[in-house]
Amino acid sequence: MADKSFFIDTTKCTACRGCQIACKQWNKNPGTKTIQRGNHQNPSDLSASTFKLVRFNEVEIPGGEPKWYFFPDQCRHCMSPPCKEVADGKVKGAILQDEKTGAVIFSPKVKVNPADFKEIRESCPYDIPRINAGMGIMAKCTMCFDRIKEGMLPACVKTCPTGTMNFGDRKDILEKANKRLAEVKKVYKDAFLANSDDVRAIFLLVDDAKRYYKFAVAENTIGITRKMALKRLFQPLTGLRDLIG
Ligand code: SF4
Ligand code: SF4
Q1: What share of the chain is helix, strand, coil (3-state, %, to 5)?
Q2: What is the H or E stretch that residue 231 is in?
Q3: Per-position pLDDT tens, the chain of length 245
Q4: 230 C-alpha to center of ligand 1: Å?
Q5: 75 C-alpha to center of ligand 1: Å?
Q6: What is the largest distance, in Å, between two alpha-carbon atoms of the chain?
Q7: Directed axis angle between helix 114-123 and helix 226-244, to 10°?
Q8: Where are the beta strands (DSSP E) in the chain?
Q9: Using the 8-state DSSP alphabet, how is residue 180 labeled?
Q10: Nearest CA residue ID for atom 1, ligand 2
């Protein structure tokens, strides 16, 4: 198996949630109790039993109509995953990366304590890691490793009826993503591929990333944890305070 990647073309997403359901079914994850919150978001967030979540965001465009942004969220299977870097220093074997495909996998056998989990979650620029608190077991998208090693597509990709979800060899996926970006840019000049050099789940977005979801795009460089990035951010302030006395 070669290096793999997803291409997630949000311009084609209708928010049908087929991918979300297919992910639950394949992973035999229990349904999550849904409640009416006055919007379409259900469940409200990722969890140890929801690895794929279609995020809905309604934005009021100044002077215009409300606009919907759909974001089928999931682990990005980072090229150099900061979650693994942190986990390796805390609880060996909790996070593994497949050498061939690049899939980043949370071990279902290794227990993680709440303090270590907090640091692992904070290290992820996309806020993906979740834990089954009772069992101390972390969980997230597995890239459907059990399917792809048998030559099948991940369940979300197989199910998506619109062509939003794509998966394949990284080289082919990058080619496909760049080709589609060039097409989309003719209509949406601000379109871009989110962190495409750093991740294996590449989202095509056409607007300010924050309109989709606050963690849609990494704010800090991959490989630097959110905590370290914050420290860097406040370093100049500390320096200024020293200067002012
Ligand atoms: S998106 Fe987050 S959980 Fe997934 S590999 Fe990257 S750092 Fe780890
Ligand atoms: S199945 Fe495809 S179109 Fe439906 S919500 Fe998921 S990504 Fe969007």
Answers
A1: 30, 20, 50
A2: helix 226-244
A3: 899 999 999 999 999 999 999 999 999 999 988 899 888 899 999 999 999 999 999 998 888 888 999 999 999 999 999 999 999 999 999 999 999 999 999 999 999 999 999 999 999 999 999 999 899 999 999 999 999 999 999 999 999 999 999 999 999 999 999 999 999 999 999 999 999 999 999 999 999 999 999 999 997 654 455 555 544 444 444 333 333 32
A4: 18
A5: 5
A6: 64
A7: 80
A8: 4-9, 53-60, 66-73, 95-97, 104-106, 130-132, 137-139, 165-169, 192-193, 201-205
A9: H
A10: 160
Q: Whose CA is nearest to atom 4 of ligand 1?
A: 75
For the whole model, what pTM was predicted? 0.90
Lookup: tokens for 170: 């990284």
Q: 104 has which bridge partners?
A: 97
Ligand 2 atom 3, closest CA: 13
Q: Any residues with Cβ below 6 Å from ligand 1, and which?
A: 75-78, 81-83, 104, 124, 126, 128-129, 140
Q: CA-to-CA distance for 92 and 198, rounded, in angstroms?
A: 23
- Residue 181 corresponds to which tokens in the numbers above? 């970006």
Kindly compute the dihedral angle of the four CA atoms of residues 165, 170, 171, 173, in this order, to the nearest 10 degrees.
10
